[in-house]
Specification:
- The protein is mainly alpha-helical and 462 residues long.
- It has a single domain, classed as Ammonium transporter AmtB like domains (Ammonium transporter fold, Orthogonal Bundle), CATH 1.10.3430.
- The chain is built from 17 helices and two strands.
- A two-stranded antiparallel sheet has the order 1-2.
């Protein structure tokens, strides 16, 4: 991925087919962020549903603007010191022509830029699941701006930008095991170590309020992930994209079955939450490795990730860190597993000739490269994210008050609730009650229905 626009006479010609495919892939990746919002939104208690949805949706707004202004330039511009990119033509996209092609490929620069934009959007949104119930929405928005600027944009350059240290070292990351999942998971761990636990952690039950929403979100993620993974080969007609597509499905299925098997043996039941979480763990693990392994290797990657992530989600109770929705256990651990298993299962017949321990000359060379990439991204994201959270907490404050957390962050931060328990339907009566509530400063009129529903809400929120 060369950082300069190719204008030479012998440059590849525009491919309408590849361009169309990449636009569809970009839309699929964008769909993953609302899918993530539903996935997370169903996993929290009723009183935090809207806040969880909004933490993903705000990323779609903030990161889009930053990506156009300077993010694309920092990530994929001309390399500076193997740490950061910068190309003035990419700032505000003022120097990009509509027919300029991304160097070495048959798609326009605009298409490549918007595809990568979708990755930049979903990566910080992944972090939000670890912070459920307790972070000010305004503080989260500021953290988003700082985090993508200081962490995501440079790391994307390291891993995917020509001249980036991980890229030049030969670290394989097809679609974001290090740049997306380890990056977000390590950031989540860094932030929660600073802001602390939810009120009632390990004491009060904090069950998902809507497993159907969780399953819907997981299904949208699974669907969109085909664009996320297969699209990352940028439409090249050499069979690697289709291999990645196939391996995505295989590894996800294997991980889901492995997670459910672990649950059945350990807890005696196969849960819907386990099925959804297992599928996501498989998607995470195959993201860096799917272009390098065979379909049989994809089964191994998925199965190992499914069991390992299922075991890892319980570590928060052992070590006392409050990872609300298991971002560390699924995304960080899954990303580490998927990235390191390349060092064992890379066949040399996919995206590159690099082979793992089980193939070729049984060399550990690629494994050491993967370890370097994993360690570098994990350490940088963890430390910098913790510092950012600490600074914000000491200045504007990261957490809502304890009373606001207990009563519900949706009401405190958004003046709304996800579900109407008043008993009033739509039509004239509903409009009248809404008007009365507005006249009363947003307070719902109290009646017997409210009191009863309040008891129900308390029971669910507990």
């Amino acid at each position: 991925m060369a950082p300069a626009i190719m204008l030479a006479a012998d440059a590849p010609k525009l491919s309408s087919a590849n361009t169309g495919f990449m636009l569809i892939a970009s839309a699929l990746v964008l769909l993953m962020t609302p899918g993530l919002a539903f996935f997370y939104g169903g996993m929290v208690r009723v009183k935090s549903t809207l806040n969880m949805l909004m933490m993903s949706f705000i990323s779609m707004g903030i990161v889009t603007i930053l990506w156009v202004l300077y993010g694309f330039s920092m990530s994929f511009g001309t390399d500076h010191g193997s740490l950061i990119g910068w190309t003035s033509d990419f700032v505000g996209w003022t120097g990009i022509g509509k027919m300029d092609l991304w160097p070495g490929y048959t798609i326009p620069v605009f298409v490549f830029a918007v595809f990568q934009m979708m990755f930049a959007i979903i990566t910080p949104a992944l972090i939000s699941g670890a912070l459920a119930d307790r972070v000010k929405f305004s503080a989260w928005a500021v953290f988003l701006v700082l985090w993508v600027t200081i962490v995501y944009f440079p790391v994307a350059h390291w891993v995917w930008g020509t001249g980036g240290w991980a890229y030049e070292l030969g670290v394989i990351d097809f679609a974001g095991g290090t740049a997306v999942h380890i990056n977000a998971g390590a950031a989540a761990l860094g932030v929660i170590l600073v802001i602390g636990k939810r009120v009632g952690f390990k004491k009060d039950p904090m069950r998902p309020h809507s497993l159907p929403l969780v399953m819907l979100g997981a299904g949208l993620l699974w669907f969109g992930w085909f664009g996320f993974n297969a699209g990352s080969w940028l439409g090249n007609d050499d069979g690697v994209g289709p291999l990645m597509f196939v391996n995505t499905q295989i590894a996800t299925a294997a991980a889901m079955l492995a997670w459910l098997g672990y649950e059945k043996i350990r807890h005696g039941a196969c849960t819907t939450l386990g099925a959804a979480s297992g599928a996501v763990a498989g998607l995470v693990a195959i993201t860096p490795s799917g272009g390098a392994v065979t379909p049989l290797g994809a089964i191994a990657v998925g199965a190992i990730a499914g069991v390992a992530c299922a075991a890892a989600v319980g570590l928060k109770f052992r070590f006392g860190y409050d990872d609300s929705l298991d971002v560390v256990g699924v995304h960080m651990v899954g990303g580490i597993i998927g990235s390191l298993l390349i060092g064992f299962f890379a066949s040399g017949k996919g995206q590159s000739t690099a082979t793992g321990v089980f193939y070729g000359d049984h060399s550990f060379t690629q494994l050491w490269k993967q370890c370097a990439g994993v360690g570098g991204v994990l350490a940088y994201s963890l430390i910098v994210s913790a510092i950012l959270a600490f600074l914000l907490d000491k200045t504007i404050g990261m957490r809502v008050t304890q009373d606001e957390e207990v009563s519900g962050i949706d009401r405190a931060e958004h003046a709304e609730s996800a579900y109407d328990y008043s008993g009033a339907g739509g039509g004239v009566l509903g409009s009248a009650l809404s008007a009365a509530a507005g006249a009363g400063g947003g307070k719902q009129p109290e009646n017997q229905g409210d009191k009863k529903s309040g008891k129900q809400t308390k029971k669910v929120d507990a």
